[in-house]
Every structure is written in C-alpha cells, then in structure tokens.
Amino acid sequence: xxxxxxxxxxxxxxxxxxxxxxxxxxxxxxxxxxxxxxxxxxxxxxxxxxxxxxxxxxxxxxxxxxxxxxxxxxxxxxxxxxxxxxxxxxxxxxxxxxxxxxxxxxxxxxxxxxxxxxxxxxxxxxxxxxxxxxxxxxxxxxxxxxxxxxxxxxxxxxxxxxxxxxxxxxxxxxxxx
Length: 177
Fold this sequence. Notes:
8 helices, about 180 residues, mainly alpha
C-alpha cells in the first residue's frame, strides 16, 4: 500500500498506487494516450466517431425492434423471410458500434469504467446481443407463414426490446452522471 487516506470512524482507509492496481494504470494510460488526446482535441475526431456510433446503434436497435415486434406477432406486413437478410446488417452495425465504442471509451476510460450507467449499458448490450442469436435462428427456421413464434422466442423478443431500451437510456445518462 502506498499510503493511508484520512481516518474514518472505522479506521484508516488504504489507498492503492497504480503499481498495486494495474487496471487503474491501464485506464489512465489509455486516456492519456496520443489517440485519446486527438479524439478530445480534434475538431472532428470525437464528433465523427460519436456519429458513427449513434448511426450503428440506430441500425442495430431499429432492425432488432422490427424483428422483435414481428416475432411477437406484430408488424405482420413484414414477412419473416424478408427479415432474414437484415440480421447480417445487424451484425455489421454491431461491429461498427464495438469499434467506435472502444474508441469513445479510450477518450475517458477512467470515468466510463467507474460509471454505473456505462456498466448497465454494456451489460444490456451483451445480453441483447446474446438474445439476437436465437432470434436469428428462429428467422432462419420459422415457417414463413407463422403469425406468432413459440413462447420462448417471444420471451426473448420482449426481453430484447427491454434491453435495447435500457442500452439507449443508460447510454444517454452517461453524459450526465
């Protein structure tokens, strides 16, 4: 331990140095990198990356919302067969979001890592993407004339809507908290 912080009623609070906390050192070095500096100081770096990130999210959420609603028996005007190729677009847009999300994270790594809203967002994204796999499988194997999917697939679709909504809300809240 490097030193001890001011005492509380429970006794001294140990403070770790970066040598004792490699993750903290990594986060700090990421946000102090030349790339992070360029992202924050450039006239176009952060705005372009954020625009690409927002566009990718709009594609992922927009397509997944259509898939989810169709699986739930809504939007019947969209045939299941027509939705199958859209999943490829979801995966490409997700890849775009992964890359741009990492670039944004590097620009302020310590703050994002410590943010509850960031952790909620990442958890929601991971769970929603995990649900996209069985939903895509259903699109590939479903009867083209099916009006409603089996119960488990409908639950996945409803959870997907909730998780993508949580992703959007927590992502926006990151700007303020």
